Amino acid sequence: MSGPTSAIPPILSMRGISKRFGGVNALSNVSLDIFAGEVQALVGENGAGKSTLMKILSGAAEPDSGEILVDGRRAEIHSPREAERARIRMIHQELALVGALSVAENICLGRLPRTRWRLVDRRAMRQEARRILARLGSSLDVDAPAGVLSIGAQQIVEIAKALSQDARILVMDEPTSALPETDAKKLLALVRQLKSEGVAIVYITHKMEEIYGLADRLTVLRDGKFIGTETPEKLPRAELIRWMVGRTLSELIPQHAGKPGAPLLTVRDLAVRDARTGMPLVDGVSLTLARGEILGLAGLVGSGNSELLGALFGRFGRPAALAVTINGRPFLPGDPAAAIRAGAALLTNDRKATGLVLPLSVRENAMLASLSRAARAGLVSRRQEEALSAPVLKRLHLRAASSESQVSTLSGGNQQKVALAKWLLTRPRLLLLDEPTRGVDVGAKHEIYELINALADEGVGILLVTSELPELLGLSDRILAMHRGRVTAEFTRAQATPEKVMAAATASDQPQEAA
Amino acid sequence: MTLKIRQILGASRPLLILAAVFVLCAALSPTDGQGANTFLTWGSQTNMLRFMSEYGILAAGMTLVILSGGIDLSVGSILGFTAVLFSWMTIWKDVPAVLAVPACLAAGAALGGVNGFLVARFRIQPFVVTLAMMVVARGLAKLVSGGQKVSTAFEQNGDFVTKPIPPFFDFLNDRIGGTFPVVGVVFLAAILLLWGAARYTLFGRHLYAIGGNEEAARLSGVRVGWAKAGAYAVSGLMAALAGLCDAAQQQQGDPEAGATYELDAIAAVVIGGTALTGGRGSMSLTLVGVLVIGYIDQILSLKGFDQSQRLIAKGLIILGAVLLQKRERV
User: Fold this and answer.
1) What's the pLDDT tens digit per position in B24-54?
2) CA pair distance A332, A334, nearest whole angstrom
3) To which CATH superfamily is domain A263-374+384-506 assigned?
4) What ipTM is given for this predicted complex?
5) Which residues on B lie below 8 Å from A336 (Cβ)?
6) Contact of A380 with B202, CB cutoff 8 Å
7) Cα separations (Å) of A280 from A152, A464, A486, B25?
8) Looking at CA atoms only, how far is residue B42 from chain A in angstroms?
9) Which residues in chain A are closer than 8 Å to B221, comparing Cβ atoms?
10) Among the listed residues B138, B42, B37, the one whose alpha carbon sits nearest the alpha carbon of residue B83
11) A1-87+168-177+190-247 sits in which CATH class?
């Protein structure tokens, strides 16, 4: 593949980069060229390998094979410090400012100007900070603590920090995803300015208007593989979506036979705000779910689909403005224990952080949400625990040395099965599944698909969030596409195609259809 | 096969360490005039048990708190407060022990419950909450006693009076069959009871889950706040129990009693191998930790080391135990 003008060599090339995590190929043989003064959009579904590739570029992860060339010479980038020396800076989605320090201190952190006496030269530091901010057209107070600034202003401080370190390659991971419209416009103007000053920008985004309004070139990754690099003019939107999702839907995903029954769950006007920023995460969503129905919630990170599941389960306390009924009875979300009593179960999208208690055994984890079933007068009967959990673990084909094995010693797929077992043991009526096959090997995936279908056939209503489109399309009876906290489209199984669903999940200008 | 052997060895490692310490102490022990091993005498063993009962009881309650991922710095002060309260009630105010014992236990549990409430409801760090309680409870001890030791000889309306020791003091301070100390029985009973609570109750399982992953526990419907509050209340209750033992053994209520005992209790839990981060460990490990500290202290004192040297040795043992466990876990 060649650059915009093939005469000028790229300032940085990544060649044949591969990286495995456990049994999963996160990246296989990916190459990427970066030229001075360009904005290159890095595009792909969640889990396509964008973040891993950028972690390798910024020294936060090491590739298993492949090389990085800076100015045509092989460069060793094994740590963030070495990346910094190569003048590469990454601005993460989660901003990394020290909240208690001032704007000036944050900008100059790591290379603070010193006085003759080896003390921090505060005057020089503030001057330097003001100089860089002025270059960015910003008049932020350099003495304000960074923690009190808006997310937009913090982004600017992050960029200023990168510039103070003379970055010539700037990696930005969805920088506008948490910004209100006006701040996002400012940021995009800033990106264009940096580009005109010769800085190369690798820009990870899901937003079509940014891909087509900002980028000089786009690189598409899918399932850890390099799909192609093209200019936006030569890659129309429909074609880009095909590049992003373009695998044939796996025949392996089985469909379930049962028909949806009586209504199970109704939600009217669910709204969730980010506790810290006050930004709406879910913005007035209404939906209904029948018994035995699998309803897929399509959407990219930040669409609010995962937050919707959490809010229904009471994960974020009491959400604003909503009316929920489960089985015809009104239900007020706000407390996980109450949700469990009402028959709900939430499989979270991060089993290690929020799903499993890693130091405990398989049995103890499986029984955690239904332990009172094995207890009398507060005393737990181990025999009863075994009697209850063994059939469920068997049904899930759990492969573990014993039910006393520490759950942290299991593979990802088996850990996920334990997390599922925990919820099956509560005999749920409403199953909220958030990325049920994330980090799970192919065999276990298929078993989980069959389980989901079997549960639906038994009359359990299922809300499914997954970033894997084939999985979503294959399992769901019906799909709601979400974008920025709102439902943008609804599809029946027959109507849904990967292109249509992806278009609805990425569109921001599409009017909201009735849900 | 080797995996199985290693598992068994791993599970019984604390016992092996305890046995090793015991054998080492016996081997190093000086002999008396008749050539008998002074460490291996029944008297030496029961004395040691009596000596470590108080902080052993504290360590039992502390284990529950640490399993839940917390820490309780207030137990030494609660011990002092209840020792004074009990002496004040039974010696000065002639309250019968049938009433005074439950009252003091309830007072300790209540102070612990306040710790738990503050930790659970306001999500203040346990270190800070129990540090504050440590200071407050010590103040309460001095408030009740008027700053002096509450003993059988005291001044009343300008007269100097002497009262008999209440029978409950003698009962707790007694030795069964003339040899086995009652406080030792109390200690072992406390360990046994809380061992069962940790291992066989909903409450105990919930503490492990909270210490291992609080968010996962909450999302599994565990009442995190109640469980935590319960752990601190039990810890306060144990501190009160140790306070009664302290009053009985000293025959008075000393408002300074139990100072720094909380650190001995934490040390015992840590030496046993219960993780300060929560979720890993057990009551039987704590028993081992208490015995190891007790044995080593005993042998050092038999060998004629003075207190300064014994303190230094204890500090080194704490460090060594943690380093050992760190290597194991990698």
Assistant:
1) 888 888 887 787 788 888 888 898 899 899 9
2) 6
3) P-loop containing nucleotide triphosphate hydrolases (3.40.50.300)
4) 0.87
5) 218-221
6) yes
7) 16, 21, 10, 66
8) 37
9) 336-337, 339-341, 369
10) B138
11) alpha beta
